[in-house]
Design brief:
The complex is a heterodimer. By secondary structure, chain A is of the alpha+beta class. Chain A contains 9 helices and 9 strands. In chain A, strand 4 and strand 5 form a beta hairpin. Chain A starts with a helix and ends in a 35-residue tail after the last helix. The two termini of chain B are about 30 Å apart. Chain B has 14 helices and no strands. Chain B is mainly alpha-helical. The chains are: A alpha+beta, B mainly alpha. Chains A and B meet through helix 3, helix 4, strand 6, helix 8 and helix 9 of A and helix 1, helix 2, helix 4, helix 5 and helix 7 of B.
Chain lengths: ~325, ~400
């Protein structure tokens, strides 16, 4: 490899240019979300645990009736989880100190503003629609389950028992119904008014008004407003988040921002590393310039090191 | 008279063929069951823990397959031609490591037949997995091309061999770049789950830690593979025991240095992220076992071995370092993941998951043996010995 000082300087200049470009493109601005998008507000203090939402959801998604019968209150004795046959689940939680009535909360995909499932999918099988819902395309899905792995709400499920066509199962925010101007099935089915559907900005106002009006009933916080960048599904509640199986004070930064810094290093590395390694090669082979260019060396070990090059003016020749 | 092929020394392990054959058959049955009945049948994976033992071994195989890029860089970039005899075994071992990675990935994917979708249908460029997919695909090709000279020598295709050899330096540079990217990004997969990975094993610097430990893995595996080849294939190996011992001591120095850097990086991480309080727990004790017992201790053993000229101590250090890397990947992917879940919901691998891993290891050993006995891996092909006269 014929290497000159000029060539090295050119390589460094190119690397710096590449670095500058990479810095300009790898920005970490959080997505502020589409204006006027829709959402849902779940008022956990109004939920009576009737599970009509589960029944309605299973109905519109053709999942069959929920595995646990609707009229059996003993199902609440254990914490039920989402599954590929149950896109939403209502669980009962221990009431906080000083209260006696049981507390219920509905859980489902939160349709995050900057969804990590969409960020990690290596075939872009998820999209965040302008209306709000995050959609999944099973025709692209390769089944890597990275989305299921990252979701901080454990909201995604996978058809592990389906050998031929396994898919991810999750709440769709009834996107086809929304497009027709209808409400999501759970919001329509709820008899207690615990689920409100509308524009996310309006729902935030509604939630704040309720919290202001009944300060003893609610905690002064809207879960989903800012957590991990915010979600389309908002929850107001009357007792500590940890007792409702929700994460307490997670970061406001969307989860994808935790990895964008690392991923943006790839073009930087591609720009710098070859030049660096070429420089190392030149340094290591600067005594070899007289030898024949035949690439391969004898397989037996060589003597330890060749005699050092003659020094001139006390300096070793550079290249 | 020349000895006939029948006069080879008796095989040292007569049970070898039967054992590997049985494991191969067992593995094929498991794989068929996995594809016929689905992942739910073959594994204990569930919605809370969709990645389990097979993911841990994907990480392990790649970390230990780093012998390829480490040795080619040492010889062709850093000019350490005294290690030349170890390059081909190291690259072969690395190539097999990535082969196992790809195989276990195919078993783990829900729809393996769609594995080319990110390249052919729709690339998800925001995904760390996409970067890994591209880098591994390119790196696998690079390693194959690095092995091509050996293959061409075996086939006696001189022109193509000359071409392949000329590409060596370029392939080495590409190999180091690609390895830096995907070794670190395999760690970056865990950046997005701070709430699910134990605080001692989670770090914003996990990509750096994975990359540094891959260097350790590469050096340690080269020492181990060299020793195994010397033990089993002494008659084929171009280096004799003394020469290998000298090379082992040199590698021990590199390994000690790499481990020292890795352990320091983790120490700095403990300080930067203020994790000291977390050390006062059973998990903390386990972390120290991994970091000190299988990180700092092998570093010391390798350094002492280099200084005192004790190759067997060096090999012990290498073995401990490999155990440390295996432990780290198992901790990150399985043991220290989702610890907040109630005990009933925690994941335990199924016997079939273990079975598939053992099957793949047996497969790798079989292929290594097959290639080494037929192709010029452990010694140069007699027709291509240097120097070539014009």
């Amino acid at each position: 490899m014929n290497f000159t000082r000029r060539g090295w300087l050119a390589g460094v200049a190119a690397s710096l240019a590449g670095l500058k470009t990479a810095q300009a493109s790898g920005s970490n601005r959080a997505f502020r979300s589409y204006p006027g998008r829709l959402g849902l507000l779940h008022d956990s203090t109004l939920c009576i645990g009737c599970r009509s939402c589960e029944a309605a959801c299973n109905n519109v998604n053709s999942l069959g009736p929920p595995a646990d019968p609707l009229d059996d209150p003993s199902v609440f004795e254990r914490t039920r989880k989402l599954s590929t046959r149950l896109y939403t689940v209502v669980n009962r939680y221990m009431p906080a100190q000083g209260r006696r009535a049981p507390v219920y909360r509905k859980h489902q995909c939160m349709h995050c503003n900057e969804p990590c499932c969409a960020s990690v999918c290596f075939v872009k099988a998820f999209i965040k629609t302008p209306e709000g819902p995050v959609l999944y395309d099973p025709d692209l899905c390769v089944g890597c389950r990275y989305c299921v792995f990252v979701c901080p709400y454990y909201a995604l499920t996978y058809e592990f028992n389906e050998p031929a066509t396994p898919r991810v199962g999750r709440c769709t925010m009834c996107y086809p119904r929304i497009r027709q101007g209808l409400q999501p099935a759970c919001a329509e089915a709820c008899p207690a008014g615990a689920i409100q559907y509308g524009r996310r900005d309006d729902l935030l106002e509604l939630a704040r008004a309720r919290i202001r009006k009944y300060p003893d009933r609610y905690r002064p916080h809207i879960f989903g407003e800012n957590e991990w960048g915010g979600t389309s599904w908002l929850t107001i509640y009357g007792q500590p988040l940890a007792t409702l199986d929700l994460p307490d004070e997670p970061s406001h930064a969307p989860l994808p921002t935790l990895i964008t810094g690392h991923l943006s290093l790839a073009p930087v590395a591609a720009a710098i590393v070859p030049g660096l390694l070429a420089g190392i090669y030149a340094l290591a082979h600067r005594r070899d310039e007289g030898l024949p260019k035949n690439g391969q060396r004898p397989t037996t070990s060589l003597p330890d090191s060749p005699t050092p090059a003659k020094k001139k003016d006390g300096h070793e020749p550079l290249a | 008279m020349n000895p006939s092929p029948e006069d080879r020394p008796r095989p040292r392990f007569p049970w070898f063929g039967a054992t590997t054959g049985a494991l191969l058959l067992f593995g094929i049955v498991l794989v068929v069951l996995r594809f016929v009945f689905g992942l739910g049948f073959a594994t204990n994976l569930d919605n809370a823990t969709p990645w389990g033992l097979w993911t841990a071994f994907k990480l392990i195989f790649v970390a230990l397959a780093a012998s390829g890029y480490v040795m080619t860089a040492a010889v062709y970039l850093f000019g350490r031609h005294d290690y030349h005899a170890l390059v081909r075994p190291a690259v072969l071992s690395g190539f097999l490591g990535y082969t196992l990675f790809i195989l276990i990935l195919l078993f783990d994917l829900g729809r393996s037949w769609r594995i080319l979708f990110p390249f052919l249908v729709q690339p998800g460029t925001t995904s760390a997995l996409f970067e890994i997919a591209i880098c591994v695909a390119l790196y696998y090709t690079t390693q194959f091309l690095e092995l091509a000279p050996a293959g061409f020598e075996w086939l006696r295709w001189r022109r193509l061999r000359k071409l392949a050899v000329a590409a060596t330096a370029g392939l080495t540079v590409l190999g180091v770049l690609l390895s830096m990217l995907h070794q670190s990004t395999l760690g970056a997969l865990y950046l997005m789950v701070p709430s699910k990975l134990h605080v001692l094993w989670y770090s914003p610097n996990i990509p750096l830690h994975f990359f540094l430990s891959s260097i350790v893995g590469g050096v340690s595996m080269t020492m181990t593979i060299g020793w195994l080849c010397q033990r089993v294939y002494a008659e084929r190996f171009a280096v004799d025991r003394d020469q290998l011992d000298r090379l082992t001591l040199g590698l021990a120095k590199a390994g000690a240095l790499a481990l020292a850097v890795y352990v320091s990086a983790k120490g700095v991480d403990l300080a930067l992220e203020d994790k000291w309080a977390a050390l006062h727990s059973p998990a903390g004790a386990w972390y120290l076992v991994e970091l000190v017992g299988f990180g700092l201790a092998p570093a010391a053993l390798l350094a002492i071995a280099h200084r005192e000229g004790r190759p067997s101590l060096a090999r012990m250090g290498a073995a401990l370092a490999i155990v440390g890397i295996v432990m780290n990947r198992l901790n990150v992917a399985v043991l220290m993941f989702n610890r907040n879940l109630p005990a009933d919901d925690r994941y335990v691998p199924s016997w079939m998951e273990y079975g598939v891993v053992i099957f793949l290891l047996a497969l790798a050993v079989m292929i290594f043996r097959l290639v080494v006995r037929r192709m010029p891996i452990l010694a140069a092909h007699p027709d291509f010995r240097q120097p070539q006269l014009p």
